Amino acid sequence: MPQQPQATPSPSPKPKKKIRVPRVVNGVEQMVEIEVDEDSGPGWGPNDKHTLLNHRLTRVDGPVKVAGAARYTYDQRLPGMLYGRILRCPHGHARVASIDTDTAAKIPGVKAIVQAPLTELRFAGAPVVAVAATTPEIAGDALRAIKVNYEVLPHVVHAAAAARPDAPKVVAEESNLQEKAKNGDPAKVQAAFATADAIVDEEYITPRLHHACLETHGMVVDYRGGDTAIVYASTQGTFTIPADAAKELGLEQSAVESRVEHMGGGFGSKFGIGTEGMFACRLSKQAKAPVKLMLTRYDEFVMAGNRSGSWQKLKAGVKNDGTIVAMQARQYRLGGVGQGSQAGQPYIYRMGDTYREVYALHTNEDSAIAMRAPGHPQASFAVESLVDELAYKIKMDPVAFRKKNLRDEVYHRQLDRGAKEIGWSRRNPIAGGNPGPLKRGMGCAVGTWGGGGNNQCKVDVTISRDGSVLVAVGSQDLGTGTRTFTRAIVAEEFGLGMNDVREQIGSSKLGSANPSGGSTTAASLSPSVKDAAIKARLMLAERVAPLLGNPKPEEVVFANGNVSAKGQSLAWKQACAALPAAGITSHGEWRADLQSRGIHGVCFAEVEVDVETGHVKPIKMVHVQDGGLPLNRLTLESQINGGMIQALGMALWEGRVMDAQLGMQLNPGFGDYKLPGSLEMPELVPIIDDDDKREAVIGIAEGCIIPAVGAVANAVFNATGIRVRELPITPDKILMGLVSTRSGSNGVAG
Amino acid sequence: MNRSRRKFLKGVGIAGAGAAIADHLFVETEAKETTPQTISGATKITLDVNGQRRTVEVEPRTTLLNALRNHLDPAVTGPKLVCDVGTCGACTVLLDGKPAYSCLVLAVDATNKKITTVEGLGTQEKPNAVQAAFVEHDALMCGFCTPGFVTTITAYLKQNPNPSLDEVREACKGNFCRCGTYPRIFEAALAAAKSSSSSSQV
Q1: Fold topology of B41-120
Q2: Which residues on chain B are in Cβ contact (under 8 Å) with A479?
Q3: Nearest C-alpha of chain A: how many angstroms from B189?
Q4: How far is CA A89 from the centre of its chain?
Q5: Total domain count, chain A
């Protein structure tokens, strides 16, 4: 490759400062300290002064996706490629006594068989052995021909049963209940409860949820026994693949390239090579042929991870003026064999004296993993239900009550905006007070998230002499619009249009990038893109300065496809003709000042409940979200919609169902695990909070799934007077609530 | 000859629970048939895909979806494999213009049908009205469900060129999206209907 001129390094070291930023490991944020430049350079400018950013840009990969031409990992087909499948343990808890693969190995077309490391199998669906064959159908034949003798052990799959002292142990010699944290002073809390005018003391439960990515987990390992390999992975972290794949293949890390051209959904579940990737690599190594191993839909349900369940016992006391004086919480994270996740209570509310105990409660289920805002919708649903119960108990408007107990005034303005949009004034303050069998009700809730970035992205911008522009970085686009904003930042900086810039992403051979977890992608990537674009602009300005009367580089104006200074102007292509034959390439680094963290969102929901059938029909949802500089309003609104819809699924329909006797999942498919569908869609109103004037990029993807769950649950209560405290809010629970209300055990709150 | 799937199942007598049930259920119908055609092992068949005659060798049990994706060369990968049991609609193709889940159709049973996949509806450069509206209205995020929705809606608008919002919802009920693009899919479908009807008036 020809030597390309580089951005000139600064002569003396710039003053530095230390800041804390999130770094994502397996989808979960950890805060780390890094050093950044004190004085960084030009900023984004006011949010309302952009020519492309903060506009409605159609996504640049739209045309290829609607034409069916986008190539996903699942679509890779290589010459001589084999298809992998995994055989799974059907028991909730077992050991493998013996495996006989002889018959399977003799089936024509079966090319490789790899056994899982022989450990205890702690959940139904645990992988036992994998095969690779010339067609997926033959791989299925091979699985059926493998004979496994299991030594079956006692299992427990329900949290309440697992907490009993005589419950079967998920891990021998260890209690299923593990204490994780204790915060606060229980004595102070008890004293404060004594001063309260009203107390709410309830339990809230959320089930295990599935990411249900339409593209299942998996990869295509292109290894034919040589020194190098290419791994096509359906992953949220291009750079989380090569090291582990190389280890499995016995290669140097640099010899393995991972590619993520397009990927069909992750929602927090796709980091690293995973068990399926380990098998794909080993099968490929054994067969000396490319192997595609994509999980089947059944596999995906029983093994690809899930959102942690939760069981929360919350007690809070309130004064008649609306002040919450104390809260105590006992929080169980239900993560199966894993640790699970759950934000600490009282979440984002100010509740006076608080005390909480947090436990992990283990069952014989596969490990919970990160899922869009890990641990937050669970905590939010519980605390928003609790807050709502307190408000009704002292007969205070739930919006006013929230404002009273939320310090941050951003929530106050967002609550007012959302209330106006949903028509809160139409709401009947008496829960269940509307006449007739079809009862409407409204609820609201609030949420927060970080969304800051870190310094992992390295971006190259190349301007060629013919005027073409390429921005390159290894980052992946999950469908969030990464390609589109990457292109837009560069095009805007150069005063060009969207079609004048091309981007190249999704390869570990390009500049490094962070994994897409914790909503860190936009705030990590966009500052590096902007930095590279500014540097390239100044490099070009320096080159064309002699043609424009020798202005300083920063005086050259790039706008409307022209490069101008001192009253003279060149068309973009004319300006680029002044470049050397190889063009110019700038290298962008992350800048802390171009991003920020800390977002706010509120959601309002209106539902209609048929009290004769218990059926809940969502009518309308409004979500108001801030997030600094909106890079692209169109795709940002789409993400807010997506958050509301996924939250709606959590509130009303979704939940893993386990069979206590068999220890296995009863609904491992789309026929039985109810996803939100077209018929249930309410009117959705995504609102970008433009009163947020921060000139900084912040990720919002996770923030906008959090409050809607509580908002919907509270709307169901307002409609019916029935408080369903265990998700999903299915008709049976509403009808049971109505029955107990009529029998006089629980008066309708007002 | 118009061979249905059930006749085919009788003919080859595949083992396996699903096939065995179908076999049993339709045995009476079968008794009236004359000389059912028997297919076993790998068989060469010709499929009419997006207007091209494509010859391919498949097993009798190979689904149309897997034939398109795993056997045709070059592959046709617009239709996606997501659930493999006819619940999600990502594999939707048109058989003689009617939407069908290609994971529920055997390849050998599609030989006498005109098969249209999303690739046959339009291209990146020349999208059809539905495809163009999907881009314009941001009716996609990850894009994995998109080919199925585009195919379903394209067929539906042929049948009902001026649908209401509720009719569009109804038409889409056999397709799942996980990212949450439904509202924009509805917008795109209605916009495509409008643009098609206005362009046909010109």
Answers
A1: Ubiquitin-like (UB roll) (3.10.20)
A2: 140-143, 179
A3: 13
A4: 29
A5: 3
